[in-house]
Design a protein that fits this description.
Elements: H1 16-20, H2 28-61, E1 75-76, E2 79-81, E3 85-87, E4 90-99, E5 102-105, E6 111-116, E7 125-126, E8 131-135, H3 138-195, H4 200-254, E9 256-258, E10 263-268, E11 275-276, E12 283-286, E13 291-298, H5 299-306, E14 316-323, E15 326-342, E16 347-354, E17 368-374, E18 378-385, E19 394-399, E20 402-407, E21 409-414, E22 417-422, E23 429-431, E24 444-445
Parallel strand pairs: 1-24
Antiparallel strand pairs: 2-23, 3-18, 4-13, 4-17, 5-12, 6-8, 6-11, 7-10, 8-9, 10-12, 13-16, 14-15, 14-17, 15-16, 18-22, 19-20, 19-23, 21-22
Helix pairs in contact: 3-4
Length: 471
């Protein structure tokens, strides 16, 4: 249907049906809905008010409850009782076994080896005085014979010189007698000459005879001096030749090389037919009954033991050698202290001589052993576990169920124990449990001992009741 140009367009246009529909009613129905909403709100407020009143009455009618008292918590710990006594800790070190008596045997003469001991090999034992090896003695025997022959010749020369000396002395005595007679005759001639009995020439002849006799005596005296010098010279030759004989005899004896002491062969390089030179090392030997253990004490350990009333030298030590998974025990005695400070090892070297042992395994040089050395003696000291020590000078004493710090003086450690030289009283209990948050006044309980009065339950056995819980 076509619309007129004067009719309104769009949504404003109405149809014939819309014009015929009656208008909506707005009066009594709207009032009813509003009244219903007011009634519902009032009813809700009444319910809430009633519930609040009922709840207050229930709370007021309930019996009054008291909270469980809070107890102070104490920690279960371990403790030890102090017992003061003389304490001697043990210093445990490691050392090495060394031979205290060893020698490298060198032959004094050269030559071919003609004999070798059947046990001359490394690790074998030989007895003192046994021939280890022998060198061909032919040249040495010849040298000895020549030395003896030279000595015999010199002895004969000395005998000849002595005979000459004796003869010269006899001739001197005769010459002195003749001189005495000539001088007497000269005196008589001089007296006769004064009386005119003898002439001057006769006197002069007698003076000449005296002069000749004096010359003869002087000659004999000189001959005696010469013979004495020759005798002294030959005596010196004889002494030298006697030394030559002794040297040749000793060289012959040295051709058989013997063990200077009983011991164990460390090494040997001699064989039958081999040429050995003098002063070459042929056999190395050590005394298995003279073994030392060398260990090192630190500066502090050495200073502590050295100031003890008991000297370090002479102190007995215990030695353990672990071999094949088995521990073998030995003992030793400190015999000497190193002359110098062992700077490379940081202390002082100490040597202990091993005592004879019945152990089935014989110690050998080079063995690595554990050494237990008695430390200095601490009188009236306490021994506590190392865990009781906090820092280097603090322990905690348990008194009245609480911890109390105590400053102490640490003497030394002995394994897992600490030696306290000062600061503790006999009978006190010392904390040995390691606590991370330890402090003065911390409540503790030692299991197995009744807690002091006033202490609460041990932590872990229960917990304090919370507010509102029943007991």
């Amino acid at each position: 249907m076509l619309k007129s140009l004067h009719e309104p367009r769009g949504d404003a246009a109405t149809t014939d049906g819309d014009r015929d529909r009656p208008p909506p009613a707005t009066g009594p129905r709207t009032s009813v809905t509003l009244a219903r909403a007011i009634v519902q709100a009032a009813l809700m407020l009444a319910i809430l008010a009633g519930s609040y009143v009922v709840m207050n009455r229930l709370i007021a009618a309930a019996p009054e409850r008291t909270a469980r008292p809070q107890f102070e918590v104490s920690l279960p710990v371990a403790a030890t009782t102090v017992a003061l006594a003389d304490q001697r800790p043990t210093v445990r070190l490691y050392g090495e076994v060394a031979s205290a008596r060893a020698i490298d045997i060198r032959p004094a003469v050269s030559g071919e080896v003609t004999e070798v001991h059947p046990d001359l090999s490394a690790g074998q034992s030989v007895a003192q005085g046994e021939v280890l090896f022998a060198i061909d003695p032919f040249d040495l025997e010849v040298a000895l014979a020549e030395a003896r022959a030279n000595l015999a010749q010199t002895e004969a020369t000395i005998a000849e010189n002595r005979a000459r000396l004796a003869s010269e002395r006899a001739q001197r005595d005769i010459a002195e007698q003749q001189l005495a007679l000539a001088r007497t005759d000269l005196e008589r001639a001089r007296q006769l000459s004064e009386n005119g009995t003898l002439t001057a020439k006769q006197v002069e002849d007698r003076e000449l005879i005296v002069s000749q006799r004096e010359q003869a005596v002087s000659q004999r005296v000189n001959n005696i001096a010469i013979e004495q010098a020759r005798l002294a010279q030959q005596s010196a030759v004889r002494d030298r030749q006697q030394l030559g004989v002794q040297r040749a005899r000793r060289n012959l004896e040295d051709s058989r090389v013997r063990a200077p002491f009983s011991g164990v062969v460390r090494s040997s390089t001699v064989e039958v037919g081999r040429i050995v030179a003098a002063n070459d090392v042929a056999v190395a030997l050590y005394d298995d009954t003279a073994l030392d253990v060398r260990f090192t004490l630190t500066d502090s350990q050495y200073g502590r033991i050295a100031t003890d009333t008991d000297p370090l030298i002479g102190r007995q030590v215990d030695i353990v050698w672990t071999v094949g998974g088995v521990d073998y025990d030995y003992t030793g005695t400190v015999t000497r202290i190193g002359a110098d400070i062992a700077a490379d090892r940081g202390g002082v070297d100490v040597f202990a001589r091993l005592a004879p042992s019945d152990a089935p395994v014989q110690l050998r040089p080079g063995a690595f052993v554990e050494v237990a050395v008695p430390d200095r003696l601490y009188r009236n000291a306490a021994r506590v576990p190392e865990t009781a020590l906090y820092g280097t000078d603090t322990v905690y004493v348990i008194a009245d169920g609480a911890l109390h710090s105590r400053e102490v003086t640490l003497g030394a450690f002995d394994g897992a124990d600490a030696i306290i030289s000062h600061g503790l009283v006999d009978g006190e209990r010392v904390l040995t449990t390691r606590l991370s948050n330890v402090e003065d006044g911390l409540k503790v309980t030692v299991p197995g001992q009744a807690p002091p009065e006033g202490d609460g339950p041990v932590a872990g056995g229960g917990r304090p009741a919370a507010d509102g819980e029943e007991g």
